Amino acid sequence: MEHCNVSDQHVSQAIRPAPLDGIRVLDLTRILAGPWCTQNLADLGANVYKIERPETGDDTRAWGPPFLQTPDKEDTAEAAYYLSANRNKQSISLDIASQEGADVVRAMARECDILVENFKVGGLAKYGLDYASLKAINPRLIYCSITGFGQTGPYAERPGYDFMIQAMGGMMSLTGERDDKPGGGPQKAGVAVADLMTGMYATSSILAALFERSRSGLGQHIDIALLDCQVAMLANQNMNYLVSGQAPKRAGNAHQNLVPYQVFPTKDGHIIVAIGNNRQFAAYCEAIGHPEVVEDERFRINSQRVKHRDELEQILSAAMQKHPSAYWLEALDKIGVPAGPINDLHGVFSHPQVQARNMRIELAHSQAGKVSMTASPMRFSDSPVSYRMAPPQLGEHTEQALQSVLGADSPELKQWRDRN
User: Within 10 Å of residue 392's Cβ, how many Cβ atoms?
Assistant: First the structure.
């Protein structure tokens, strides 16, 4: 399936093949964290074979509305959620719980470089598809397991989902309005950040293992846990706690370590102002008509501004409400003070910078005609990512993919055909 309507930057003649051209990935994942990882690998040029349950496939195919529509405005079987993480993959409909299905997956694993799975700990061992079993037939296989809590520890066998991991891993203790303000209380992020960051850590780990294999010639098992990734990604907030012994609290749209770095009301809406140093603060105060604030000992340096956050916010908020958002965005841009609008997604994809970076692409789709998607943010000068296929329909590539990997005359494929 050819891509269409993709920018010249994405379809320009590559000087070298895509970074993972020729790499084969066996994808036994579903939902988001695993598919996000394997979509990254697919965008980088890998051949990704998505193994799905017959009839139902990846759970997210049904996570709608909205669903992708045909040119006649009829819903297809593909939910928008599923489309977000399954580009450039080939779908194979296969029952791994059957002996024949498990045999086919084992035969494919013998020919693949990478396997990614997100079953419960030990869940694939009963089919002979665990790391130890597959390592015995393919020592070069890089096998990445993505679970809620990892392969070890007292919670290892428990299921884990993004929402509960955001809560358990500290994210929701930091997200949301302050408890002493209206609407205060714990709040999850607007997208599944634990899943997405786990997918990114898994991608990085797999690429590192590929590089290591180029030296050792051997694969290895990668153990990626949602909870580990959620804890790790709290970054400076972790260090705020580890250094001070005090758990940071929710601060709404404010920043625990920088002031002012927050949303401000304007005459006709809201914008964000993000001050990162004292020079920017001085320029900002001049622009809003309060140069005297810079000389106030309570506000002169950032550490003092953090201590006197509420007093400073009253002064700045009153000044910002005197003019509309467009006035402030233009004025602050001229003096190099970081500020920006709060866009909905219509505003995002209409933004000139987003359009200039070609972050919206379209791929041909056999039922819908075409599907709009978000481009990969990975940009290479000489071996760019490629957009080869829209997210596949369930089992769309079963026969051709199995023949490609196993060969038309393989005994596993013959047995699978014979048993239907």
Answer: 25
CA atoms lying within 13 Å on the CB side of residue 36:
18
- Residues recognised as catalytic: 195
Per-residue pLDDT reduced to its tens digit, 26-67: 999 999 999 999 999 999 999 999 999 999 999 999 999 999
Q: Where are the domains of the chain?
A: 3-233+357-418, 261-345
DSSP-derived pairing of the beta strands 3-4 and 360-365: antiparallel
Give the strand pairing for 24-28 and 114-117.
parallel
Residues 6+ apart with CB under 8 A from 47: 22, 23, 24, 25, 90
* Top-level class of domain 3-233+357-418: alpha beta
Burial of 100 (0-12, 13-18, 19+ CB in 10 A): middle
Q: Range with the lowest mean pLDDT among 4-18, 242-256, 301-315? A: 4-18
Q: Does domain 261-345 have CATH number 3.30.1540.10?
A: yes
Q: How far is CA 148 from CA 41, 163, 187, in A?
A: 21, 11, 20
Q: What does the pLDDT average to over 322-340? A: 97
3-state SS, one letter per residue, for 283-295: HHHHHCCCHHHHH
Q: What is the Cα–Cα distance from 134 to 141, expressed in whole angstroms?
A: 8
Four-residue CA torsion sign, 99, 51, 17, 32:
negative
